[in-house]
Amino acid sequence: MAEHYLIDGYNVIHKDPSLRKLLFQDSRAAREQLISRLIDFTLMNSCAVTLVFDGRHDAPPSGSTAVSAQSPRLTITYTAERQSADAYIERYVQRHPVRSELVVVSSDRGIRDLCRGMGSLTVDAAYFLKTLKEQADRVRERLAAAQMESARNRGRVEDALDDQARASLQAIREKLLRKHPEKKGRS
Fold it and tell me: Does residue 93 carry a pLDDT above 90?
């Protein structure tokens, strides 16, 4: 079953301390940071995301929708000026043919209960942010481990050799160590 996340953008931003702080300084930058995290999320999880922002005067044109150039699975929607993200999400769930594929992300218990009642899954915004952070941490750990392994193996000629050549080198190494046992600790 393919999952499709419906995310109340400002609701999630308000649940993340760093994004909330940024929102009051530069709302566009706060939205862009959330979008960046969601691009990574869609790429790592092969899922679709519709990020919904309430239409506001400082956002792109109300009622506009765009697909992210970095991830075609991420759609960003700005509701009409007087339409809330909750109303948009409710209508989206209502019209969706397979509601069990939808995961609504919001801290608003009312919209979560309503959407759950219609058959979709729901996740609290704080829990979703925790999941995003844990996933990003795991990726950073894997990347650091891969970089360390790459650095450790960098410059080792034997890593580029086939098994026969490696065996020949080992035989030469053992022969040299028998002739010069004092060099045993240096290899």
Answer: yes
State the CATH architecture for 4-132.
3-Layer(aba) Sandwich (3.40)
CA-based end-to-end distance of the chain:
54
User: Using CA atoms, how far apart are residues 102 and 39, in angstroms rounded to an integer?
Assistant: 18
Q: What residue has token string 């566009």? A: 28
Three-class SS string for 72-139?
A: CCEEEEECCCCCCHHHHHHHHHHHCCCHHHEEEECCCHHHHHHHHHCCCEEECHHHHHHHHHHHHHHH
The Cα 87–Cα 69 span in angstroms is 26
pLDDT digits (tens, 9 = 90+) for 131-167: 999 988 888 888 888 888 777 766 666 666 788 888 8
